[in-house]
Design a protein that fits this description.
The chain is of the alpha/beta class. It has 16 helices and 21 strands. It has 3 domains: about 230 residues, Phosphoenolpyruvate-binding domains (TIM Barrel, Alpha-Beta Barrel); about 80 residues, PK beta-barrel domain-like (M1 Pyruvate Kinase, Domain 3, Beta Barrel); about 130 residues, Pyruvate kinase, C-terminal domain (Pyruvate Kinase, Chain: A, domain 1, 3-Layer(aba) Sandwich), CATH 3.40.1380. Strand 1, helix 1 and strand 2 form a beta-alpha-beta unit.
């Protein structure tokens, strides 16, 4: 079982129950629903199908909902695809219209007030470049700088623009209420600028009395990079969304930014997801390019928690084959990782809490005795996450009686979450740990597992014991 998790985005190519079942069977750990491209009814149907499939397969698959965020897109066009020609002008108007090669409108018309003459506007993931040559109270006139195509609902990026737009829209507020109602596991926040955006969402979750939904902040612009330390403190994790980053910033800077954020996330014990164009050529081809394979491999070597497939599974021709290919790459590269070196990085930290010190010892012991697995008993998931943070060489089987805790561990590195009955004694924890490890792994006589957990005691709320067991 791979330690680096896989997230797959659902779309027209993968929304059927049969395809969802197959990609889960082929190794997808978390299903993502992007609310920029889905209705609430469509999302509900996908969620109910995932849960039915999980019951059918006795599986645990996490569910992630993406907010739309204060993003800007082109409104519908008169045709499916419109060609723009270099040197011609196009008008961007505030009124909502069906666009063409002469005139278009955007989903956030108030943004036009903040755009200056001379600024550049990038359409369709940066494939078309416009320069603003004049403006009025109700429109911008732009020169088209290169030939290209646009589609309805395609992206609009304005690098270095200073917008004063509300982060939490009415639609996103309804999206978050929907995510809470459907009890999904992860909320990916689009177009985060700073920690204040996340705190607004936290306030809403408190208002909705939700303590389960984990916040993943999508890093998509320069402001978010400048505020990354503060964002990490108030988020459960980050997603490095390289598509928008590559449009908003110089593309040659993206690899170093990816490594920096991945390292910061590890140092802070937060989830890190690498996203966008992992195997994008597989939208149209059954095999990836060698460069794409290297890109996925480098993301695995960076020690990221998860790799996310976007358009490859949402609109691509080969969603199942893409999942299989990603799984094979992860499996091959993880064989080359030196987990003792990874653990050595953490040993340089000046100070560890009691729980961190015990979890570090659990991982160190498991690595040294070449344990087949670490089994940790957890109520909240904190023990499993801390052990995962230290990147052990073995898998981490997290056993918990809490269903929400179990589904909320699907994205963390190396964790296999399993629901078990409530345990009242240490002997019971040990017995259930051994039994569960035997069921999941093909253990042989004299194989070793390391068991960690909390001695049942109301005064203790952190990991406080470790035991090494040899299979008899």
């Amino acid at each position: 079982m791979n330690k680096t998790k896989m997230i797959a985005t659902i779309g027209p190519s993968s929304k059927s129950k049969d395809v969802i079942r197959e990609i889960i069977k082929e190794g997808v750990d978390v299903i993502r629903i992007n609310m920029s491209h889905s209705t609430f009814e469509e999302a509900k149907e996908v969620i109910l199908n995932i849960r039915e499939i999980n019951r059918e397969l006795s599986n645990v698959t996490g569910i992630m909902i993406d907010t739309r965020g204060p993003e800007i897109r082109i409104n519908d066009l008169e045709e499916r695809k419109v060609k723009l020609e270099q040197g011609k002008n196009i008008r961007i108007v505030k009124s909502k219209i069906k666009g063409n090669s002469d005139m278009i409108s955007i989903t956030l018309p108030e943004a036009l007030d903040y755009i200056r003459i001379g600024q550049h506007i990038l359409l369709n993931d940066g494939s078309v470049n416009l320069e603003v040559v004049s403006k009025s109270s109700d429109a911008l006139i732009c020169e088209i700088k290169n030939d290209g195509f646009i589609k309805g609902k395609c992206s609009v990026n304005i690098p270095n623009a200073d917008f004063d737009l509300k982060f939490l829209s009415d639609y996103d507020r309804e999206t978050i209420k929907f995510a809470v109602l459907m009890q999904v596991d992860y909320l990916a926040l689009s177009h985060v600028n700073n920690e204040l955006d996340i705190l607004d969402i936290n306030d809403l979750l408190i208002e909705l009395d939700d303590g389960h939904l984990q916040i993943i902040s999508k890093i998509e612009n320069k402001n978010a990079i400048e505020s990354i330390d503060a964002i990490l403190k108030v988020s459960d994790g980050v997603m490095i969304a390289r598509g928008d980053l590559g449009v908003e910033m110089e593309i040659e800077k993206i690899p170093s930014i990816q490594k920096k954020i991945a390292n910061l996330a590890k140092e802070n014990g937060k989830i890190c997801i690498i996203a966008t164009e992992m195997l994008s050529s597989m939208q149209d081809n059954p095999r990836p390019t060698r460069a794409e394979v290297s890109d996925v491999a480098n993301s695995v070597l960076d020690g990221t928690d998860a790799i996310m497939l976007s358009s490859e599974t949402a609109i691509g021709k080969y969603p199942i084959e893409t999942v299989k290919t990603t799984n094979k790459i992860i499996d091959e590269i993880e064989k080359e990782i030196d987990y003792n070196d990874l653990l050595l990085e953490f040993s340089r930290q000046d100070k560890l809490s009691i729980e961190d010190a015990i979890c570090y010892s659990v991982v160190d012991s498991a690595n040294r005795v070449k344990a087949s697995s670490i089994v940790c008993a957890t109520i909240s998931g904190k023990t499993a996450k801390t052990i995962s943070h230290f990147r052990p060489s073995s898998s981490v089987i997290a056993i918990s009686p809490d269903e929400k805790t179990v589904s909320g561990l699907t994205i963390n590195y190396g964790i296999i979450p399993i629901k078990v009955p409530m345990m009242d004694t240490t002997d019971e924890i040990i017995d259930v740990s051994i039994k569960t490890a035997k069921q999941i792994l093909n253990l042989k006589e004299k194989d070793k597992i390391v068991i960690a957990g909390t001695f049942p005691n109301k005064e203790v709320d952190y990991t406080n014991f470790m035991k090494i067991e040899e299979i008899k």
